[in-house]
Write a structure and sequence with these properties.
333 residues, alpha/beta, 7-stranded mixed sheet, 12 helices, 9 strands, globular
Length: 333
């Protein structure tokens, strides 16, 4: 998972410098609190209980995002709440995180963080597999969680036609899960070189020789290829935590739309946006990109909502029920 690269315009240099400097003042404990809101460790290197980490995830994200400046101790200027809330939006945060994880892998063999949890990673891969097979068989199951809805065929052959791009791949474990599901044309990108080094090391160790990795920033992508399936687990979330989140999210949609082939899928997994919020964001992009807001036909939309994972556990907070994680699929027209 990756955040974004901060472009330094003349008027913003001093402000951005203060922001990055403030990030450097955050202690390892504070970085851990922020990361814990995004990740669940299991067999990949932690003795912490997965269920408890799931239960604490939403609260921890809030704590990391809105902790008061007075809770930090430093001889230097303390970071304000805005700086703390945007930790996960800076490349410096991810570079430091993956430098630590790469060192931990080399010393102990641990794969590191499993963003949103291993169970979510497995659900995303298997659910997306069934959705892709359904599209290959010229129908969209109403409930793709149920594999029995799919007609008989040759899944391996059908999945071989799906080129997969994972933006903000992080340690690349999600792509390994997709490989286990039968996908074979797999590419992962991240703007952190440390993340790509770790992802390559982990893929080599697990003998996933068909997964390709490269350093690339989704907001300034150098990729010249379109993919039939583009997956994002947490990258849009991280972009939204940058102080210029709304602008950067707009840039994200411009860029991501250029990478999804016509008739392909974009699958986004988020812990910051609910299903309806992601759909609204896509509809706003459709309108901004020139699609007709009066038309309901798919041909007039850049992206069309297809389905969402319906099997995630739900919780109730403040009288509202929802899931801690949302995975939503959109069809590129």
């Amino acid at each position: 998972m990756a955040g974004i690269r901060l472009p330094l315009e003349d008027a913003d240099v001093s402000h951005a410098t203060r922001q990055v400097a403030a990030v450097d003042l955050i202690s390892d404990d504070d970085r851990s609190v922020a990361a814990d809101s995004w990740s669940i460790k299991s067999e990949y290197g932690s003795t912490l209980d997965d269920d408890q980490r799931h239960a604490d995830a939403t609260e921890a994200l809030s704590v990391a995002a809105y902790r008061a400046p007075s809770e930090y101790s430093s001889d230097k200027e303390e970071p304000d709440a805005e700086t703390v809330s945007s930790l996960l939006g800076f490349q410096s945060y991810w570079d430091a995180t993956y430098a630590d994880e790469l060192a931990n892998f080399r010393e102990h063999g641990h794969a590191g963080e499993v963003w949103f949890g291993a169970d979510v990673m497995e659900i995303v891969a298997s659910w997306t597999k069934n959705l892709c097979i359904g599209i290959s068989q010229s129908h969209l199951p109403n409930h793709v969680d149920n594999a029995n809805n799919l007609s008989a065929g040759e899944p391996e052959k059908e999945l071989s036609n799906w080129s997969v791009l994972d933006v903000g791949t992080g340690n690349g474990l999600l792509l390994q899960e997709f490989a286990k599901q039968g996908f074979s044309d797999l590419t992962g990108t991240d703007y952190s070189e440390g993340a790509i080094d770790l992802a390559r090391s982990l893929a080599d160790r697990a003998e996933f020789t068909n997964i390709k990795f490269s350093v690339d920033d989704i907001l300034d992508t150098k990729l010249d290829k379109k993919f039939k399936l583009v997956i994002d687990k947490g990258t849009l979330d991280a972009i939204g935590l940058h102080p210029d989140g709304p602008l950067k999210r707009s840039m994200y949609w411009d860029s991501i739309s250029s990478l999804v082939a016509s008739g392909g899928l974009l699958v986004i997994t988020s812990c910051n946006s609910m299903k309806d919020e992601l759909i609204q964001e896509v509809e706003a992009f459709n309108h901004r990109s020139g699609a007709s807001p009066e038309s309901d036909t798919a041909v007039d939309q850049a992206f069309q909502y297809v389905d969402h994972v319906q099997s995630y556990p739900t919780f109730t907070f403040g009288g509202s029920a929802g899931s801690r994680v949302a995975t939503v699929a959109f069809l590129r027209n």
